[in-house]
Amino acid sequence: MTMMHGSCHCGALNIEFTTSKSTSEFQPRACDCSFCRKHGAAYISDPKGKLSIIQRNAGALHEYRQGSNTARFLLCKDCGVLVGVALDHESGTYAAVNAGCLDDVTELGESLSASPQRLSPEEKVSRWLALWVPDVVFTTVPQ
After folding, report:
1. Which of 115, 104, 62 is nearest to 85 (CA)?
2. Top-level CATH class of 2-140?
3. Which segments of the chain have a pLDDT < 50?
4. Span of the secretion signal (predicted)?
5. Which end of the chain has fewer CB atoms < 10 Å from its terminal CB, N or C?
6. Distance between CA atoms of 123 and 7, rounded to whole angstroms?
7. CA atoms within 13 A on the CB side of 45
């Protein structure tokens, strides 16, 4: 198992991503929607992985929805860094990590372009359920 750590710029949000893949097996998916492009987002995930998003203080996690309002973009309320994206589904919460917020991960493959805006909301959900991390935990740890 590989454990990747990351955070927003100010450290109010921390990421722990556990995967059976090595870092070199990932090719981040660079979403071409205007929101993700403006944030420079490229996502990685593993449908067999586990993701923990830890708030260092209550209220640090800000969520934003756009487009079809299907996904929740996860940003730091204080520094504005986009750490990931989540989908709430009847079977649980699924998520992907913005590779740009990971620490000391230099072996990722070249980013591939992804165009979810060309998909219907149903097609997006189907794609995300197949690709994203199904084991997602949100916690708050007081400083």
Report:
1. 62
2. mainly beta
3. none
4. none
5. C
6. 30
7. 24
- Concatenate the DSSP letters of all residues of 65-99 into one string: --TTS-SEEEEETTT--EEEEEEEETTEEEEEEEG
Work out whether strand 92-98 and strand 135-140 pair parallel, antiparallel, or are unpaired. unpaired
Q: Is the pTM of this model over 0.85?
A: yes
Say how many C-beta atoms besides its own lie within 10 A of residue 41's C-beta. Answer: 25
Give the model confidence (pLDDT) of 106-130 as tens digits: 788 787 777 777 878 888 889 999 9
Q: Is 83 within 8 Å of 31 (Cβ atoms)?
A: no
Amino acid at 102: L
CA atoms of 61 and 1, how far apart (whole Å): 27
**Which residue type does 10 have?**
C
